[in-house]
């Protein structure tokens, strides 16, 4: 029986003290431990950024790849071995800047995996440029007069693209985040958890306090129904994207259910050599 | 009687020109002739001239013929564009509908009411069948040779459709019999009747991947690579594999890496522009030592260049394309048969050396259909390389990481896959230590760099270069890719004239077979490197890797078309 401990390794993250990403790491570890998974059956795939380092801080298989490509790598892993629990993770720049295209298509494709984004509204690793989720007018290193682009709202984008599981969390609320991660892993299909995860070094606007003041926790609303897409849309717009909890969930077939010939047995466990007779048959289709 | 014949059918794109050529080719292939067929097309979907040039021979021929014996024309444009290829006494068989005219010269024109006869059989689309009938008549063949193919093609649509098509063929034969008949100078020597295959390089690659146990193919469509994906879309479902059309080439490449990391054999296929997009990820595969196979079917560049034309100008890109320095294997098969075996080798090399393997072809090789001897599955082994044994895994203590990047003598460390207990380690594109943990220490950096590069240091893969012709030639012709058949044919003519020429063909570009090439060029008076590009990339690579010769020149063609044997013959003769 695996516990939280088994998902810890003795590596000290190189995140700044107080960085929101610590809580995300702890929540993933707790969720995995609670779910009684074995570390060797989990793969954490991350992109590049401060947040992208997360795959190195969780004791499981994992891959820290290239900027913006955690999702296609993760989908490749899951396609090859459907028995693994696959978690993709990274920052808002990684996922919604350079990697937005992959995000949209992962939503469409609905391959069963969990995507956890550490959204700090800034580029941390490259030392403080604005990110696609920075608010209009946000002053950063490379926008001294304030950004003149509108902010991308991950929840709006995900819903309109047709996501089958959408949640948002906040680094200050590890219990809620842990529970959301467990639900996301249990969900069959592509799930996004966008986590408001403050960068204490470069973002002086979107601080813990700022989030506390601005976030609406949907779990405190008894009338909220996460299976109602129109309501989800409405809440996301009403709160300007700043809501937490399970926002929307629907059951729809996952990609693997629909791929012709896709077997119950993982591709990685299958026999590679063709039957001689089968080979002769496919060869003779050219005769 | 002829031991070879060249036949071309042309018309507007969308008129079924390919399928006409294909039916003709398969019919003769099944009779034991060797076929080589090359398609000329443009990037328009409908309209625009297209043609299929088909060479029928009693022995293997892997090049376009210099001349044309018979031209089938569905429009005047076809005659205007192609008549110059006709040999003295060549024949044009054209649809009488457009009132065809042939240019001055010793050509014979047969104006046949293709469309009218087809309409009588039920539909104008069958004009192609009438044309096939007319061709068969001229060659003295009966409609029987088409019977099985027509039935393969149309039986799904009902026996009536089969009968209508056969009737159109027969009426074509009948019309031609009355208006020209069998032309004795176009009779072919009977073929050996042996059963052989007929396939394109792309199909051979697809079949090779299937045979080698590849089961995941993420890819993004691009000419001329798409048919590799299309072939596997038909076949992977039967063996539990999956083909996924990604959002772009970056996703294709990274997804393939993900699958490979998880333990599957994965590949992707692309052409120039897509290859450029994949470069960052190819660097990642090199750094994390993930085996992955990339097919680059070259076409005309740069940029969107000549998307439907032949070129060999990605050599620098495949060799030097990614940033930083990684070990990389680049295979360059030159026939469809080699494409099959080389693709299977590519997966074994990728697993053995744990690095990206790029297999490059060119458009002529990817798309040209050719006769192939039956393929031998026994020649294909599946070798997954160094994988950690249960004992090795058991040795990893609790809380310890597996040394995935362990320093070894040959630079190759055992692999593990997610799901294996005891194999947990770190994987990152950041410089790392033996367990994969980030490590920028200078000493570690040097050791890791050396470890990765050591995998391919000072080595040549087997059969990196083939050689034919005189031992001490006056001229040595060097080529790669689809020029194989063209150069061989030129070589045959030199040998027939008693001239001292040889041919070295490069089949592996990385690790570059400099040692072998040096031995060959060392014995030649002159060397000419034949390539379909404008800057002589292969020649420059030879020099770069230390292949020395005082009289080494380029012979280049970069107008988008493959060389003809006569061009190489004439050029090389001028050097003797
Ligand atoms: C192709 C490429 N372009 C640029 C970079 C440089 N880069 C590294 S991380 C990063 C942005 C990270 O921002 P985010 O994803 O928000 O992560 P954070 O550091 O804030 O956690 C950039 C631009 C890179 N590594 N690769
Ligand atoms: S720079 Fe910001 S995002 Fe990066 S580790 Fe520090 S606090 Fe976290």
UniProtKB/TrEMBL annotation, chain A:
CDD domains referenced in this protein's UniProt entry, alphabetically: TPP_OGFOR
Name the UniProt key words of this record, in alphabetical order.
Iron, Iron-sulfur, Magnesium, Metal-binding, Oxidoreductase, Thiamine pyrophosphate
Gene3D superfamilies in the record: 3.40.50.970
Its cofactor is: [4Fe-4S] cluster; thiamine diphosphate; Mg(2+)
The keyword Metal-binding is annotated on this UniProt entry: yes
Span-the-membrane segments of this chain are none
Record-annotated Thiamine pyrophosphate enzyme TPP-binding domain positions: 48-195
Question: Where does the Pyruvate ferredoxin oxidoreductase beta subunit C-terminal domain start and stop, copy by copy?
Answer: 199-264
Keyword Lipid biosynthesis included in the entry's annotation: no
Under InterPro entries, the record lists: 2-oxoacid:Fd_oxidoreductase, OFOB, PFO_beta_C, THDP-binding, TPP_enzyme_TPP-bd
Xref: Pfam families? PFO_beta_C, TPP_enzyme_C
Q: Which NCBIfam families match?
A: PorB_KorB
Q: What is this protein called?
A: 2-oxoacid:ferredoxin oxidoreductase subunit beta
- What organism is recorded for this protein? Fodinisporobacter ferrooxydans
UniProtKB/TrEMBL annotation, chain B:
Q: Where is the Pyruvate flavodoxin/ferredoxin oxidoreductase pyrimidine binding domain?
A: 208-450
* Superkingdom of the source species: Bacteria
Tell me yes or no: is rRNA-binding among this UniProt entry's keywords: no
**What InterPro entries has UniProt attached to this entry?**
2-oxoacid/accept_OxRdtase_asu, PFOR_II, Pyruvate:ferred/Flavod_OxRd, Pyrv/ketoisovalerate_OxRed_cat, Pyrv_Fd/Flavodoxin_OxRdtase_N, Pyrv_flavodox_OxRed_cen, THDP-binding, Transketo_C/PFOR_II
Q: Name one Pfam family in it.
A: POR
Keyword Membrane set for record: no
Protein keywords: Oxidoreductase
Protein name in UniProt = 2-oxoacid:acceptor oxidoreductase subunit alpha
Q: Give the species.
A: Fodinisporobacter ferrooxydans
